[in-house]
Amino acid sequence: MRSRAAVLERSVQMASRDGLEGLTIGALATELEVHKSSVFALFGSKEELQLATLAAARAILIDHVIAPALTSREGLPRLSAIGESWCDYFLSDVFAGGCFLCAASMEMDGRPGPVRDAVAAVMREWIGVLSSNIEAAMAAGDLRGDVLPAAMAFRLNALGMAANWQRQLLHDRAGIEHARLAWRAELDRHSATSPPRTRTAREVAKLGP
Amino acid sequence: MRSRAAVLERSVQMASRDGLEGLTIGALATELEVHKSSVFALFGSKEELQLATLAAARAILIDHVIAPALTSREGLPRLSAIGESWCDYFLSDVFAGGCFLCAASMEMDGRPGPVRDAVAAVMREWIGVLSSNIEAAMAAGDLRGDVLPAAMAFRLNALGMAANWQRQLLHDRAGIEHARLAWRAELDRHSATSPPRTRTAREVAKLGP
DNA sequence: CAAATATACGCACGATCGTCTATATTGTTC
DNA sequence: GAACAATATAGACGATCGTGCGTATATTTG
Question: Is residue B197 part of a domain?
Answer without folding.
Answer: yes
